[in-house]
Write a structure and sequence with these properties.
3 helices; alpha+beta; 192 residues; 6-stranded mixed sheet; Nuclease_put_TT1808; two-stranded antiparallel ribbon
């Protein structure tokens, strides 16, 4: 068996053909597969997307993001960037073009969304990382990315409960969270 470093996994990942309905991401050299999301998850993504003005912003779902200097190609639940910056084609979107990424927490993605992806998106200098958590009924807005690699993080964190409004000043949006659904019967976690 031949050892494959993190960069070697990128090539393997690009050739991978997952079964339909399976989301696949490369996170720091680790291939992560997840089943299709819950309806609550999809409705939250749709509600956020509907509130971001299409005239100024492109709102992309299932878009692979290329994180500079990382063996990571995450697939956020929603990627937001200025309309004029959208490339004409391609599978990977350069992290430098992205204004905001959104992840909706599921039972199986808690650690990834709050820890692993927080560091990856901060390493990519993505200005806004919004974690929407239907387990804890909260939004966590992370801003001011700093650092590199696994030590990267966001300097500011704002937590808003579902039902309250969340100002997204960089987008010129006051996000209404009152229609966001929650998961029932799921054990609470300790994050952020």
């Amino acid at each position: 068996m031949t050892a494959v470093d993190e960069r070697g996994m990128t090539k393997y990942f690009q050739e991978l053909e997952p079964p339909e309905g399976v989301k696949v991401e490369l996170l720091r050299g680790v291939i992560v597969m997840m089943a299709s999301p819950d309806i609550v998850h999809n409705m939250i993504v749709a509600d956020v997307q509907d509130q971001i003005p299409r005239q100024r912003w492109s709102r992309l779902q299932t878009q692979d993001v290329d994180i500079l200097d990382e063996a990571s190609e995450p697939v956020p639940d929603l990627v937001v960037l200025r309309r004029e910056l959208v490339p004409a084609s391609g599978r990977l979107l350069a992290c430098q073009l992205v204004t905001m990424v959104v992840e909706v927490v599921s039972k199986s993605s808690v650690h990834q969304d709050y820890v692993t992806k927080r560091s990856i998106y901060a390493a990519g200098k993505i200005p806004l990382y919004l974690v929407l958590d239907p387990i804890m009924a909260q939004c966590v807005l992370l801003t001011k990315p700093t650092g590199q690699g696994e030590e990267a993080d966001y300097l500011t964190q704002e937590i808003v409960k579902f039902g309250d409004r969340l100002p997204l000043e960089a987008l010129g949006v006051d996000l209404d969270t009152s229609a966001f659904g929650t998961f029932t019967g799921v054990r609470p976690h300790r994050y952020p």
